[in-house]
Amino acid sequence: MADKPTEPPNPEHGWGQLLPKFFKDPAMIVNHAANGKSTRSFITEGRWQKLVDALRPGDWVIIQFAHNDEKIFPNARGEFQDNLRRFVADVRAKQANPILATPCARRSFDESGRLADTHGDYSDAVRAVAAATKVPLLEMNLLTMDLEAGHGPEGSKRLHLWIGAGVYQRQPAGYQDDTHYSAYGAERVAALAVQEIIRLRLPLADWLR
């Protein structure tokens, strides 16, 4: 979701970085996301408290984690869910509105061209917290799996960062990344989030272009 630096030119974009273009007032979107953070590190580094301190009644907060939590927690049912419940409670305590989002799919095709869900039970863990706390849920996991599968094993490279050597100063040797998004991929995923906001009939939709 995070905003990525643009200088020197950078092919990587977070979907939250592209979200403002869908809103009538782009300045209303404040992106607190950061690369490489789990629910735990987002709390311990003070990033969550900074967000909470900035909240005003009526604000909306989209909360999406899992990719990095999967690397540190043995399963999705303990601290990960506890942290999500804390996020929901803290946002509501400020009379603001939490929204949970399941994690976006990685580009992970097997030899037969079938896309694998790499998140294990993390998507279900987010769904369970959303249901228990009665929080709107953006179903980003299923929608982005459809997006990846629809592009196919080769076409889905365009969603991500398959960069040839000598194209970008940042990565002169080129590189391949099946998790983070290109500008094209980030815009497509942001559009899916907008689709979910509309489907759920959230008041936030009143601000869409």
Structure, briefly:
The chain is mainly alpha-helical and 209 residues long. The chain has one domain: 3-Layer(aba) Sandwich (Rossmann fold), CATH 3.40.50. Helix 5 runs parallel beside helix 6.
Task: Describe the structure in your own words.
The protein is mostly helical. The protein has one domain: Rossmann fold. The protein is built from 8 helices and 5 strands, in the order H-H-H-E-H-H-E-H-E-H-E-E-H. The protein has helices at residues 15-18, 39-44, 47-54, 69-72, 79-93, 122-133, 140-155, 183-199; strands at 60-64, 97-101, 137-138, 161-163, 175-177. The strands form 2 sheets. Strands 1-2-3 form a 3-stranded parallel sheet. The chain has a two-stranded antiparallel ribbon with strand order 4-5. Strand 2, helix 6 and strand 3 (137-138) form a beta-alpha-beta unit. Helix 5 packs parallel to helix 6 (122-133) and helix 7 packs antiparallel against helix 8. The radius of gyration is 17 Å and the shape is globular. It starts with 14 loop residues before the first helix and ends in a 10-residue tail after the last helix. The model has no long low-confidence stretch (mean pLDDT 94).
